């Protein structure tokens, strides 16, 4: 090292030099001393990637702006991790937006102290210009994978279904294999690999994660109004708020019916019940506006109940999963399978377990359980009382409570978000399998003959 902290030999060399070159290092009196005395005859050359640094402290005769890429930077970085016992999950290197400047993305796992130490050590490598910890800021991260999967002609439609689900692409076709390219986050790629494993993965190559920081500044100073239904509106509003943005929640009017029924009943001169929830009321008129909106879409014709975002969201999710969709679908299929496995005709099983369900639900819809029981035969009513508790047991109710807990604690929301982030593989595969259930096959054939239900 030269200068006031340097050795005698280096200072003597500078004293006699005709050319003094500084490459990407701090160039000031602490390094070189006063050059009019230390190197009175030398031409000063300063090479740096940042032009603002050139001539900043020492007058420069020959300024050069550029990135001096010495070989072995990747080796020194990876060696640093190896020597200190830091594990590298993945590492990617490529050209950046600055000519001659590369971006290196390293994925590693450690506690705050370990990550701080890694950052300090990286800054000691002279070729490292800047270190960014993406775990502390918003980012966009992706990786690419090439998967060579065994694919006999009979299996290819199924494999292509998986490829389509993950928005991947086939980049090469061989006699007995396909090479699939998929881009996405790690969870998405992991999920796709798991689905392709049963077919036989012959080769797999993953690039590792590359990332850029996402810029929130375009939203700073702005107010974001979230007008949403269900868990999506609530979750996105909370995430935006926790990201430091100014978020307001709009009033909410939730009709208790699918959209097409809202329209149909309105046209018929009726309406469906609605719920109104107000999270924030800056003007003091939110309820009046909400009720006016409810009247505009016809809900006040049937009645509007005041609730909260949380109550409506949690009860809605529970009702869908445990009773209206998940519970009823599972019960109908179980009944159909019980009858057909006992040798009864699928057509009879369909009518008894699915078709006639509408008749009973309509009676319940119009007058409640008591009215429904008053309308059915004594035999059916007696069977209701003695058999219902055998099918829906205390264990069933316990499972329902577990479902509700998952909803209240956010587990269902996290699982569903992860499902969408990973390409909706489970949802798509299950949807396809359910469409092939025997009750759907025979039901489709029977409904083709029921012209009156198609209007």
TrEMBL record:
Belongs to the ketol-acid reductoisomerase family. This is Acetohydroxy-acid reductoisomerase. GO terms for cellular component: cytosol. Residues 62-136 form the ACT domain. SUPFAM superfamilies: 6-phosphogluconate dehydrogenase C-terminal domain-like, ACT-like, DHS-like NAD/FAD-binding domain, NAD(P)-binding Rossmann-fold domains. It holds the Pfam family ACT_AHAS_ss. Residues 308-453 form the KARI C-terminal knotted domain. The keyword Transcription regulation does not apply. Mg(2+) 1 binds at residues 316, 320. InterPro entries: 6-PGluconate_DH-like_C_sf, Acetalactate_synth_ssu, Acetolactate_synth/TF_NikR_C, Acetolactate_synth_ssu_C, ACT-like_dom_sf, ACT_dom, AHAS_ACT, AHAS_small-like_ACT. Substrate binds at residue 377. Pathway: Amino-acid biosynthesis; L-isoleucine biosynthesis; L-isoleucine from 2-oxobutanoate: step 1/4; Amino-acid biosynthesis; L-valine biosynthesis; L-valine from pyruvate: step 2/4; Amino-acid biosynthesis; L-isoleucine biosynthesis; L-isoleucine from 2-oxobutanoate: step 2/4; Amino-acid biosynthesis; L-valine biosynthesis; L-valine from pyruvate: step 1/4. Residues 115-307 form the KARI N-terminal Rossmann domain. GO terms for biological process: isoleucine biosynthetic process; L-valine biosynthetic process. It comes from Phytophthora kernoviae 00238/432. PANTHER family: KETOL-ACID REDUCTOISOMERASE, MITOCHONDRIAL.
């Amino acid at each position: 090292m030269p200068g006031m902290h340097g050795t005698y030999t280096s200072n003597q060399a500078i004293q006699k030099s005709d050319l003094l070159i500084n490459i990407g290092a701090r160039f000031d009196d602490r390094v070189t001393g006063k050059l009019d005395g230390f190197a009175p005859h030398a031409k000063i050359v300063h090479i740096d990637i940042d032009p603002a640094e050139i001539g900043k402290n020492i007058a420069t005769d020959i300024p050069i702006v550029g990135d001096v890429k010495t070989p072995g930077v990747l080796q020194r970085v990876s060696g640093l991790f190896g020597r200190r016992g830091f594990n590298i999950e993945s590492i990617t290197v490529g050209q950046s937006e600055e000519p001659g400047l590369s971006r290196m993305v390293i994925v590693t796992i450690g506690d705050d102290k370990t990550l701080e130490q890694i950052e300090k050590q990286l800054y000691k490598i002279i070729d490292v210009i800047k270190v960014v910890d993406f775990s502390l800021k918003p980012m966009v991260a992706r990786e690419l994978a090439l998967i060579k999967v065994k694919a006999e002609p009979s299996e290819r439609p199924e494999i292509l279904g998986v490829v389509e689900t993950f928005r991947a692409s086939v980049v090469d076709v061989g006699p007995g294999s396909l090479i699939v390219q998929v881009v996405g986050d790690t969870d998405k790629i992991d999920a796709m690999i798991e689905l392709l494993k049963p077919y036989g993965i012959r080769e797999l190559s993953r690039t590792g994660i590359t990332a850029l920081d996402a810029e929130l500044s375009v939203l700073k100073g702005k107010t974001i109004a979230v007008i949403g239904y269900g868990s999506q509106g609530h979750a996105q509003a909370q995430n935006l708020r926790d990201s430091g943005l100014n978020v307001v929640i709009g009033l909410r009017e939730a009709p208790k019916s699918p959209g097409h029924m809202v329209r149909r009943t309105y046209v018929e001169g009726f309406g469906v019940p609605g719920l109104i929830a107000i999270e924030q009321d800056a003007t003091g008129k939110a309820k009046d506006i909400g009720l006016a909106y409810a009247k505009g879409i016809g809900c006040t014709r049937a009645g509007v109940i005041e609730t909260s975002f949380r109550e409506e969201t949690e009860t809605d999710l529970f009702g869908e999963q445990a009773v209206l969709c998940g519970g009823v679908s599972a019960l109908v299929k179980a009944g159909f399978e019980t009858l057909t496995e006992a040798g009864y005709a699928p057509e009879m099983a369909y009518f008894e377990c699915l078709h006639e369900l509408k008749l009973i639900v309509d009676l319940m819809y119009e007058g409640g359980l008591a009215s429904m029981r008053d309308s059915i035969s004594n035999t059916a009513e007696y069977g209701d009382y003695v058999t219902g508790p055998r099918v829906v047991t205390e264990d069933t109710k316990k499972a329902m409570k577990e479902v509700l807990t998952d909803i209240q604690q956010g587990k269902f929301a996290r699982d569903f978000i992860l499902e969408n982030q990973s390409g909706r593989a489970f949802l798509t595969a299950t949807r396809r399998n359910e469409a092939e259930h025997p009750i759907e096959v025979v039901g489709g054939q029977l409904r083709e003959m029921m012209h009156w239900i198609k209007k």
